[in-house]
Amino acid sequence: MSPALVVFLVIGTIAVASSILVVAMRNPVHSALFLLLTFLCVAILFVMKGAEFVGAVQVLVYAGGIMVLFLFVVMLINVRHLPDERVLSNFWKGGLLVGLAVFLLFFTMVRPGVFHDPVASDQALRTTYTYRHRKVHQPDGTVVRKLIRRGKVVGNSEAVGMALYTDYLVPFEVASLFLLVAMIGAIVIGKRELSAIEEENIPAYMLERSETEHEVKEAMSA
Amino acid sequence: MPEPLMRYLIWPLVKFLVAFLIVQVIVAAMNYIERRLLGLMQARLGPNRVGNEVFEKITPRSLHRFIPGGLLQIIADPIKFILKEDIVPSSSEKVAYFLGPMLPLIPAFLVFCLIPYGPPPTFVVTHVNVGLLLILALTSTGVYGIILGGWASNNKYSLMGGLRSAAQMVSYEVPFGLSIVGVLMLCGSFDLVRIINYQADHIWNLFPQLIAAFIFLVAMNAENNRTPFDLPEAESELVAGYHTEYSAMKFAFFMLAEYSSMIVNCCLMVSLFFGGWTLAINGYGLTTGVLRGWGLAGGILGAVIFISKVMLFMLMYIWFRATFPRFRFDQLMDLGWKWMIPLALANIAVTAVVVLLGLQFNFQGEVVLSIAGAAIIAFTLFLLLRPRAKVIHARRVSEA
To answer: Which of A140-149, A179-188, B294-303, B319-328 has the highest mean pLDDT?
Structure first.
């Protein structure tokens, strides 16, 4: 057993175990912490596959940004301990079926070669493709211009960047548009509630303060 | 000893420990330096007694007036932290309460093996081609300690401090990351060694990326919760914020993580905008190649240059603390979201356009950007130093 395989097995076990604990824990903060551990383990698995860019972004975005917001909300609600309920709900049979179906789907989708060698660095993760028109000599003597795809092995960050901005530009832009729409929606909802509060009543001390500020400004300009 | 084991485990570990020890000595000394400097700036003395007698006994009389007072405060403070009573609030969430001070230490210490201290390969612990990204990722997890500590203390001031720090650090991480993008576009790499070599061969990124450097400086102050952005621990509103309920060594752990991440941010600032261990422009001067040619002596010289630059920025932190009053929370959020982020985005757009035009029409983009940066500096200096009408202060009523 190679050392890399040992690391894979250990990290993979921790990732699976902590992701189960995320749903099993009764304290929301503890669940959030186990989710953080899962993210970190998955990031290590990404790095082991040779996708160090994706691994670092995984930590930066999920562990550094999204989980902080999760914890923020959990702390605001301040639920110390959820009531103890049965671990399995009434729908566990249906859930098990769906879970098995998804597992089989992934199982058939993952190529056997990659699946059996968890450590092998996947060339596709660090290859960029360029397209060039080249003259190709046909067997019958004619010369035809053809579009030729050339792969070049580079770092993972270059590969991800090139893939996002060439082959997958349209899906990438559509996804960013969706995110923009979601963001604007959140801002609109937040704004409306804020203005409703403002219309109700402005605290007296705020009015006083703005008056004094006005007076100070007048005095300064005079 | 098999060769890969030496190369990938033993040597990096030894280098990391040496770098770690040096950094921790700096952290311990920073506490004393900060208190003395604050004293100087606020026209008072600061700690000036501890250890004076010891030094007077072991040094000749003629040297006495050159030894700064209170030097042994550096040792006295840690001893005090270790010996103090460790109080655990009875209603605290025990696991999170203990994790709070420990968690931020892990990323804060781990980052030190990703920073290049001098010319490679001797003075670089691990050479990662996405080093910068990994450093950002690790430092972004430092906020957990503060949030957990604030929440687990079961104290409303601690909770408020934790919430504030979560909001602040998430908001300022955006301009912090965006300000680096311009540098990445100029240098074309996440590798700090390559970024530093690029600067030695062209020009310090400070000039072509002046606005980015400014945003980075402000955002790194906010990331470390330092004055004027120290709202998570604003003593006039929140007692001591997230570490109100922490005493003894647990409190010291919070301080240790804070000062360590301050040094990390200064290292990033120096590597990204001030040429790291090199002192060169356009390939002339102390470049990596020149330093390497001098062997170990050149390496040590490079490391000394690097640490001196880092210390300058550490002093800047203290200078800021003594100079600026604290922000109000809404002002803090306004500054982050309405000024810093749009400014960083504009900087990215301008840099991208200039770099692309440079590639298309075959000129060096950083020269154009440097001229723009120099113009901004000149204009600012002009605004500051131009001759103005003399301000005649109104005399007091009693004098009139």
So the answer is: A179-188
- Residue in the structure block whose two tokens are 């790095």: A47
Task: State which residue of chain A sits closest to B149, comparing Cα positions.
Answer: A75
| Residue B121: half-sphere exposure toward Cβ, Cα within 13 Å | 7
Least CB–CB distance from A29: residue in B143, B151, B173: B151
pLDDT tens across A177-207, in order? 999 999 898 888 877 655 555 555 555 655 5
Task: Decide if B260 contacts B108 (C-beta within 8 A).
Answer: yes
- Comparing alpha-carbon positions, the chain A residue that sits nearest to B92 is A80
Neighbours of B131 (CB within 10 A): 26
Q: At what angle do helices B248-273 and B295-323 cross, to 10 degrees?
A: 110
- Most confident option among A101-105, A198-202, B160-164: A101-105
Point out the residue among B133, B151, B167 whose CB comes nearest to the CB of A53.
Answer: B133
Residue percentage of chain B with pLDDT more than 70: 96
Show residues of chain A in contact with B128, CB under 8 Å: 52
> Closest Cα of chain B to A64: distance in Å?
5
Chain B residues inside the 8 Å CB shell of A60:
133, 136-137, 140, 177
Instruction: Name residues whose C-beta falls within 8 Å of residue B327's C-beta, 6 or more positions apart in sequence.
Output: B228, B229, B231, B335
A&B contacts, CB < 8 Å = 80
How many Å apart are CA A70 and CA B77, to the nearest integer? 37
CA-angle at B224, arms to B162 and B213, nearest 5°: 140
CA distance B43 to chain A (A): 31
**From CA B199, how far away is CA B275, in angstroms rounded?**
6
Q: What pTM was estimated for this model as a whole?
A: 0.80
Residues in Cβ contact with A84 at an 8 Å cutoff, skipping those fewer than 6 apart: A26
Which pLDDT does position A116 carry in this prediction?
47
Residue A137: in which H helix or E strand, if any? strand A127-137
CA–CA min distance B386, chain A (Å): 22
Q: How far is the C-alpha of B318 from the C-alpha of B315, rounded, in Å?
A: 5
Q: How distant is the Cα of B133 from the closest Cα of chain A, in angstroms? A: 6
> pLDDT, tens digit, for every residue of B18-77?
888 888 888 888 888 888 888 888 888 888 888 777 777 787 777 777 777 788 888 888
pLDDT of residue B163: 82
CA-nearest residue of chain A to B159?
A: A75
With beta carbons less than 8 A apart as the criterion, state whether A2 and A119 touch.
Answer: yes
CA distance A39 to B333: 28
φ/ψ of residue A198, rounded to 5: -65, -35
Orientation of helix B248-273 relative to helix B156-187, angle to 10°: 20
Specify the CATH class of A3-110 in words: mainly alpha
Q: CB-CB: which of B130, B138, B166 is closest to A52?
A: B130
